[in-house]
Structures are given as structure tokens and as C-alpha cells.
Description:
Structural class: alpha/beta
CATH superfamily of the domain at 20-337: ABC transporter type 1, transmembrane domain
Helix content: 55-70%
Number of helices: 19
Mean pLDDT: 79
Largest sheet: 6 strands, mixed
CATH topology of the domain at 20-337: ABC transporter transmembrane region fold
Low-confidence stretches: 1-19, 600-610
Radius of gyration: 35 Å
Strand order of the largest sheet: 6-7-8-3-9-10
Strand content: 5-15%
Amino acid sequence: MRRTASDYPVGDRPAAADTHLGATLRRLLPYLWQHKWRVVLALSCLVGAKIANVGVPLIFKEMIDDLGGTQQVLLLPALLLLLYGALRFSASLFAELREILFARVTQHAVRRIALEVFRHLHELSLRFHLERQTGGVSRDIERGSRSISSLISYTLYSILPTLIEISIVLTILLLRYDIALALITIASLAAYIVFTVTVSNWRITLRRQLNEADSAANTRAIDSLLNYETVKYFNNEDYEARRYDQRMQLWEDAATRSQVSLSWLNLGQQAIIALGVTAMMWRAASGVVDGSMTIGDLVLVNAFLIQLYMPLNFLGVVYREIRQALADIERLFDLLAVNREIADSPNARKLADAAVAIRFAAVDFSYEANRQILHQVDFSIPAGRTVAVVGESGSGKSTLARLLYRFYDVRGGAILVNGTDLRQLTQASLRAAIGIVPQDTVLFNDTIYYNIQYGNPEANREQVLAAAAAAQLAAFIEQLPLGYETRVGERGLKLSGGEKQRVAIARALLKNPPVLIFDEATSALDSKTEKAIQASLDSAARGRTTLVIAHRLSTIMNADEILVMDSGRIVERGTHQQLLEAAGAYAQMWTLQQLEEAGAAPTEGGAAVP
């Protein structure tokens, strides 16, 4: 899998200097060009605003020269004054019109890209999400989305207008005045830009370390808070606080270095500006003395310098923010560039709406290359029949469900659905046909009603209530003060394990799929509730193709076939009665569980002790 930006440790990530403004803008252009008429009009307003802005000092110069003459003609200065006011207003008018026109373009681009990344993350494999830390990914998306707006804003509202204004001013200085004024302006601007870019490139490393420290601290905090109960169980609040403070110490050091370097950058910029302004004013004052320039010309040159250096005064900030925005956007685009491990084939077709038969044909699988999980697993689940899988923890039982749901692809053999390799089916149609009750149920931080309805968002209230009743959940919900509107907390932590599993069962029943997978669906239930729900599960499984992964053998006695797995291999198969008669591994498991339920435990010699 391709490494993404967040996979690099501090100091090992590619430098921001490798990120090019033009390349990133080209990637953004399709999102912006959807509102092309707004873009064109906004750019026209930008040019109009700069022309008006440059025109203001020119009119001001004429006013001063006319008022300073021997003939005090009031009409011409009055007209110039009106034109002066009109140009000032026009500069603001065009600038605000540009903002109004471009606001929709920018925000729509942010929305489209954020949605694209969100969809892409859901399309990535389970392996990607297990290997990543949610806090870091969340921060990358947040910063990247925000930086799109910043990049567009700084580029179109700061850099481009400044370049246009510099071009107009230099043209006027070259055409109307001594070339020395233009040369001083060019030299000052060049020195300022070179200094700013050089120092900012050095500072970008500090800024990157600051962002890494920020993400690391945020990830540490989120991970600790998500595992709040575990922290409490082991009385490790101080330990977690120390770990978080270690991250924050790195952030503090990086933030301090970044701020100090910014102060040095600002001092250098101000020194260059001061030298440039002094040289320009000296040359203009000399022109006034020798009669080649008027007082109005002196005021014009001063006004031009102020107009140029005001935006340049923020060039360091703008440049730094643009570089940081580029780095953040690249991290966002890196997420989009992560290859989907599980993707639909070009000729994938939908699974037909019909009864489903499943075949695991000599399946081999491993999560890691050096540790194989399944070895030549071969069995079938005829349409409408139930197959149960039992075995010790780590024997590969739950892996069967993950492969059938296509969270991973097999390494050898094939899984056939109605005779077709499931890799030739669209994932959407395959997963729509499967309802699953996982061993570890995770709920949304929302209401019980929402979490049940999630199985079928189009279901009405009567259907949701019926699913809750079938999962033996209705009586519990009715005792709650807020009933179905009770919020379950982060990851469902306000509910017990058994209550969460019943919500998961209700959710699967509401989906009403042709295939059901119960991955130890009653493992967190007490015996009484388990027996009550078992009847509902048997009823739900009737007529459906069902894979039951079980720990308690009493729940799968009526399965059409039972598979016993050990170390990724099927070591026994048959009905409940056939396996008991075989007196093998299944029979031993059955005996042990019967003794446990009877309140007895086997001794080392095998005899039961009451």
C-alpha cells in the first residue's frame, strides 16, 4: 500500500519545498471550474479593483499639482475630487464583488473534496483503518479542508492582486519617471521576496514539526478518551496525563521555535522595506529639488510605495500560509491516493435478488505473509440452510465472516456466491445481501432508535419497533425514561454488552437480508436472555442462508451442518448428533460446556468436581 503523509514520522516527511503551487492548483481547478462564470467575473472584478486602486494616487497627484499652481481654478480640482472618491469606492466595490462571486466557488470546492475524501475512506479496506489512528486521519481531513479555502484566498486575494498591482506601478514608473525609480522598486521587491522565501523555506521544517507534534498530541488525547473505561480500570489517569504532556512538551518546543523564527523573519523584512522606502524617497526628493519632478510626483511615488509594501508586508505570512496550506492539502490528496485494497473489478456485476448459496472452495488466507490463518477451507452453505462454525479462539472462525463480507480478499481458492466468485460481484450488492451481528458491537453516539433503524434507514417506526421486539429489546427500552430516544453514548458505552448485542441483532433483523451471519451473536447475553433470543434468531434464519460462528454449542444444535475448526483447518463436520457420536473434538467441547452449565468444572485428571 502506498504510504500517505501521516505515515511519515517527524522530520522524515517529504519537505514542503517539494510541493508545487501550480500542480496543486491544477488539481483544484476542476473543482473550481464547475462555477466558471463566477470565476471569470471574480477575476474581472479583481483586475478592476487593482486598476482603481492604482488610479487613486494618480488622481491625488493631479489634485496636488493643480491646487499648488498659480491659478486656483476650482472646477478642475472639484472634478478630480469626485473622480478620486469614485475610484476609492470602486476599488472597495470590486473587491467586495469579487468576494461575493467567489464565496460559493470556494466553499463548494471544499465541500466536494471533503465528501470525496470521506467516501474514499469508507471504500478503503478494513486493514487500512485497523492500521491507522482515527485522530490523526481526522486532523488531516480537518486541516486539509480548511487549507483549500486558505490557499484559494491567499492566491486569488493576495498574491495575484499584488502581482497585478506591481506590474501596473512599474509600468507607470518606467513610462513617466526616471528609470532609477523603477530599478530601486524592482531591487527592493527582489530582495524582499528572496529573503522571505529563503527564510520561510527554513521555517517550513519548524512548522512541519509543529504540525506533527499537534497531530500526535491530538491522536494521543482521542485514543485515551475513547478508552476511558480502560484507563479507569487500571487507575492510569496520571500515566495518560504524563504521556499526553510528553506530546504537548514537543508541541510547546516546536511552537516556541516557530514563533522566535517568525520574529527574526519580520525584522529582516522590515529592514529591507525601510531601505527601499528611504532610497525611493531620496530619489524622488532629489527630483523635486532639481525641478524634474513636482510635489505631486513625490506624493505619487510615496503612495505607490505604501500600496506596494502594504501587501508585501504580509508576504512572509502569506507565503508561509500558502506553503503550509499546500502541505496540508497534499496530505488530504494523499488520502485520496491511497490504493483501495478491495475494489470492484471493471466488469463486476450486481448480485441478483434471489436465494443465495455460498461455497468456500479451498480457501487460503493470511493477514500477514508469514502467518497463514486459513488452510484449504472447503465447505458449502446451500440456499436457505444454516451452517455453524465452532472452535477455539484464534482458529479462524471470524475470519470466514470477514472474507464473506469482503473486508479482505482470499489469497488462495475462491468464495462462490450462487456459483460466481464474489470478487466478480459489486461490493454494494454483495453487502446489501448480507446481515451481520458482530462479536464486538459498536454503536453510534446517537439514540437507540437511530442505531436500530441504521439497519434500514428507510424503515418506518412500526418496523423498527418490531425488530426491537424480535430481539427481546422492547421491554428494556420501555423501562428507560426517554425510551427509544435514549442516547447510547460514545461507541454505545452507556449500554451493557448484552444490550448492545440485542441492538445489533435488531439492526440485522431490520435489514432483512437473504444471508445472515451471527458472529458469536449471543456471547454477551445471560442464559435466560440467550434462550429467549435464540428462538428469534432461529425464526430469522428460517429460509435464509445463515453462517453461525458460535462459542456456546447449545445455540447451534439445530444447524444443518456444524464445522469444527482448529488452527485454520476444518477438522470435523456433521450434524450435532453425528459429531457427538464421533466422540472427537466437538464431543469434548460439548461435554465441557455441559459441565460448566451444570456448575461443575473438570479436574486435571478429567473428573468433574461439583
